[in-house]
Amino acid sequence: MNRIARLMAAEAASLAVMSALHLAGRLDGSTPFDPTRAGVAEAVIGGVLLTGAVVLLRGRPHAWSVALAANAFAVVGFVVGLTRTTQGGGTVDIAYHLTVLPLLLLNFIALLRLGREQAIS
């Protein structure tokens, strides 16, 4: 469980970096890509992932459900982000999405395989 939570926290940290880069105007793209929207979305996804990681680490009630929902939210967000990024984002953005999306899917699958009973014990 700790490994999954640590990976979720690392993903959240990478999202904070990408968000800051987008909001500072360091990563631009072409229309219809909007770096400000990307930065806000990354900050929200990162916050959700970090919340899921903290709840999982602390073993709170419903930790497994919260972590699973956080990962599902992040996967959907990354799919939407990748769709938008391929329409005008830069190479760094596309590479980032293609790198982190499989990690998010691995988290999700690991949580599913682990199951609620093991997650809360």
How much strand content do the residues show? under 5%
Proportion of helical residues: over 70%
Q: How many domains would you count in the coordinates?
A: 1
Biggest beta sheet attributes: none
Shape call? elongated
The mean pLDDT is: 90
Q: Sketch the topology as an H/E string, one letter per element.
A: HHHH
* Tally of strands: 0
Radius of gyration: 15 Å
How far do the termini sit from each other? Answer: 10 Å
Uncertain segments? none
Q: What's the number of helices?
A: 4
Secondary-structure class: mainly alpha
Layout of SSEs?
Blueprint: H1 2-23, H2 35-58, H3 63-85, H4 91-120
Helix pairs in contact: 1-2, 1-4, 2-3, 3-4
Characterization of this structure:
The chain is mainly alpha-helical. The chain has one domain (2-120). 82% of the residues lie in helices and 0% in strands. The protein contains 4 helices and no strands. Helix 1 (2-23) runs antiparallel to helix 2 (35-58). The longest helix has 30 residues, at 91-120. The chain starts with a helix and ends with a helix. 34% of the residues are buried. The mean pLDDT is 90.
Short description:
By secondary structure, the chain is mostly helical. The protein has helices at 2-23, 35-58, 63-85, 91-120.
Name the features.
mainly alpha; 121 residues
